[in-house]
Write a structure and sequence with these properties.
This protein is an alpha/beta fold. The chain contains seven helices and nine strands. It has a five-stranded parallel sheet, sandwiched between helices. It has a two-stranded antiparallel sheet with strand order 3-4. Strand 8 and strand 9 form a beta hairpin. The chain is elongated. The chain starts with a strand and ends with a helix. Residues 85-125 have low confidence and may be disordered. The structure holds S-adenosylmethionine. The site of S-adenosylmethionine has 19 residues, from strand 5. S-adenosylmethionine (SAM) binds at residues 133-136, 158-160, 162-163, 178-180, 182-187, 190.
Length: 285
């Protein structure tokens, strides 16, 4: 099954960007995921193709218009629902508008066959979540990323200016996700981040050897430190235990390091981890 991603943006030329190279780029080429970069402006219906307006109540900046956003989201939902199992897509998208710069792997609909087709097997498209990237959204977690990666795909909506007209969230059942307590100039970098995190978890993307299950956040802890040759560098050596060949001892050392690093660096995670441990211990009794 191909993981379908659609990104609604005023800057489709930013996609696939960094996702066109390395693991994600290869996976895109192999059809493990597909990408539609949809120009929001194509859903404005006035002659100036207006996507924003001044904030009600006054104040600085501009707000993305709810009617334009709603049409773009409806289009993306329909487009995904219609994706035939072959992955050969009917050419009805406004993506071929002159605004869309189509980088080599940007999945304008006409190029879906180029990534090996696949589609979504005709099923599950109705359940594709719509996520708007917003600073006030629910912080993105590895657990949410895992859920998304296990699903049929995602529709991401990138804000610009002051952000979205509030009515879009309820009006189109749009979830809000934040990628950190920072303010970006637009949702595109956040969307790239979210997609990157999902794509590396898709079956066959990382390869059998590294399933990602030992990594930071997967068990509520930060990952233990890594070392590689040379054994000594500027007077600093690799911990002896890692050279012992004793796998049980190594696992124990790694677990301890993992816990210690989490406690010191991320007290918030540590508290949650300890709380979960206490809860599961009392549940087991
Ligand atoms: N006025 C907004 C506020 O104060 O919350 C900030 C708008 S920001 C300049 C423009 C767009 O960037 C947002 O609509 C959102 O799509 C995106 N963005 C900015 N920071 C983000 C973050 N931490 N996580 C996800 N998206 C973000």
């Amino acid at each position: 099954m191909t993981f379908q991603a659609a990104v609604l943006t005023l800057y489709p030329e930013m996609f696939p960007g960094p996702l066109g190279v390395s693991l994600a780029g290869r996976a895109l080429g192999e059809g493990k995921w597909s990408l539609d970069a949809v120009q929001i402006r194509d859903f404005a219906n006035d002659k100036h193709r207006t996507v924003d307006d001044t904030p009600a109540g006054g104040g600085a900046g501009m707000v993305l218009k709810v009617d334009v956003l709603a049409r773009a989201i409806d289009h993306a939902r329909e487009m995904m629902a219609q994706t035939p199992p072959s992955g050969l897509l009917p050419d009805t998208s406004p993506l071929h508008g002159e605004d869309l710069v189509d980088p080599p792997h940007a999945m304008g609909r006409g190029t879906a066959d180029e990534v090996g087709g696949g589609g979504v097997g005709g099923g599950g498209a109705g359940t594709i979540p719509v996520i708007a990237l917003t600073p006030r959204g629910k912080p993105l977690t590895q657990a949410r990323v895992r859920e998304l990666a296990a699903g049929p795909g995602v529709i991401l909506v990138c804000g610009r200016f002051e952000g979205f007209d509030e009515r879009i969230f309820e009006g189109r059942q749009v979830e809000e996700v934040s990628v950190g307590d920072i303010v970006l100039s637009g949702g595109e970098c956040a969307a790239l981040m979210l997609l990157d995190a999902c794509i590396r978890l898709l079956p066959g993307v990382m390869g059998a050897a590294s399933s990602g299950h030992e990594e930071s956040f997967e068990n509520g802890l930060l990952e233990y430190p890594h070392y590689t040759r040379p054994q000594e560098w500027e007077g600093r050596t690799i911990p002896q235990v890692l050279r012992s060949g004793d796998h049980a001892k190594i696992a124990e050392w790694r677990q301890r390091q993992s816990e210690e690093d989490t406690r010191l660096r991320r007290p918030d995670l540590w508290e949650r981890h300890v709380g979960a441990r206490v809860q599961s211990a009392s549940g087991a009794r």
